[in-house]
Amino acid sequence: MPETTLDIQIKTLPHQPGVYQYFDADEKLIYVGKAKDIKKRVSSYFTKHHNYGKTRVLVKNIVSVKHIVVETENDALLLENNLIKKYQPKYNVMLKDDKSYPWICIKKERFPRVFSTRRVFKDGSEYFGPYTSMKTVKTLLGLIKGLYQLRTCNYDLSEAKIEAGKYKVCLEYHLGNCKGPCEGYETEDEYHANITAIREILKGNFKDSLQQFRVQMKQFAENMQFEDAQKIKEKLEVLENYQAKSTIVNPKISNVDVFSIISDETYAYVNFLQLSYGSIIRSHTLEIKKKLQETDKDLLELAITEIRQRFNSNSKEIYVPFAVNLGDELKITIPKLGDKKSILDLSRRNAMYYRMDKLKQIKIVDPDRHANRIMAQMKADLCLTEEPRHIECFDNSNIQGTNPVAACVVFKNGKPSKKDYRHFNIKTVEGPDDFASMEEVVYRRYKRLLEEEQPLPQLIIIDGGKGQLSSALKSLDALNLRGEIAIIGIAKRLEELFYPDDPIPLYLDKKSETLKIIQQLRNEAHRFGIEHHRNRRSKSALTTELENISGVGEQTIVDLMKQFKTVKRIANAKLDELEAVVGVSRANKIYNYYHKEQP
């Protein structure tokens, strides 16, 4: 078979770090990836079998490949992120957050204004942010306004125009919100001293401003200027109160970025906390839609690059839950204990709560969407021909062969349907034989459903390995249901899933929602079965003891238990108490049975 253009392109790829790009038949970019070794990574797409359906579809659509070689893997990560954002390829992860965020601008002027904006211009002005909420911006601007008297007008306050007396002070001056630099009442140096302090506050450093205000307050007090001292004291209280509301972590932890990730089959949520001078000054969670089977490591690396670019972070150290490759310039810390571990845990909780809130919102807006997604995922994960809207799970319970019972629990649309739960007392099996017991209850369950023309499930789950699964299959064969209902067994130790006539078990990802629902079914069946088994053992023990008494029947036992609740209380009851419940004759027999003289 002659080599295609794609085969030749793959053979000539370099063993260098860089970015590779896949194009389809229409020469449209459909995927961008990064690699330490471009040739090795690209070749792996075409030389191994892919279990994930979307990856197989991607490979089928690749017609040509291009590459860009870079110096380091970190450069490859940055380039990959930029190309994904620019071209938004069909099969790349989608960073679901394209809204514009507010900034605080210190305008490049002789007397700089400080205001909020959503547009950043390269005009030499300083921009702080972006902030994830306008509320934070308004709070900071309110704090700055309460501490420092800045101008709000947009006049051109050049030295020549001020000296010429072109402007007059406005209402803001008379209200005490501005010191009137337009008429020369405030010098440029005085004004810029305030801007320097504001710049530090926006960076999260309150220390300098607090120290400056304390010195001023002391000087005013020493000069008997108590009204001025009181004003400075009020500013100190405002600043200290704002600082107290910040989440204080540890003053020694400064200029650090913290990242954590929570993911499921379709989405990942990456939380970012920015620490400055011991306080959290920013928190943001990024939602990422998976397109292929990306790992948490791949997603976290991409998210860190994106978030640091978006929020202009220059921190030299980051805390992460596991090792990531972000180049040699950054210090990567994986905290194990102490304050560092606590802040990483806080970040993870933020990501987890963000995901929970998203799921709750989906359930309110579209109640069926969550169930539909789970059903579609289970169908794909378990290789079923239809969605398992109706699932039944069986479990046996016995202790040393006594009182053998079984339980069948039913889930519909991924949720328990308790009205459909069923208990079974084993009738045809002697002794502790789990295989025979499973065969009996599966046969009884589906024979009855067939006789009553009730709907059959799309999936049966057997709590057990190959043995229990084989026993259940015998019953399906006897009822001619083999092939009509999908059936699998789950072994407890390694959570292996067994299929009929397949010796190799299936292992699902431990975070898989499919596995979680199967485990929930298995655990519910176990709980339901154990509950019934305990009731039978208790009833059996009770019946055995009281039925040993001559002349005491089932109704007498029921009457006694209603009154005394336990066998122990019956045994310790006085004669007249027993007579009041069951009459003189039976009361004497019961009393004498428990109080007969010991030889």
Please supply descriptive tags for the structure shown above.
alpha+beta; eight-stranded mixed β-sheet; 21 strands
Outline the structure in words.
The protein is α+β, with helices and mostly antiparallel strands and 599 residues long. Helix 4 (73-87) crosses helix 11, helix 12 (338-365) packs across helix 13 and helix 14 (434-451) runs parallel beside helix 15. It is flat. It is built from 20 helices and 21 strands. Helices cover 46% and strands 19% of the residues. Strands 14, 15, 16, 17, 18, 19, 20 and 21 form an eight-stranded mixed β-sheet that branches. Strands 4, 8, 9, 10, 11, 12 and 13 form a seven-stranded mixed β-sheet that branches. A three-stranded antiparallel β-sheet has the order 2-1-3. The longest helix is centred in the C-terminal third of the chain and has 34 residues, at 513-546.
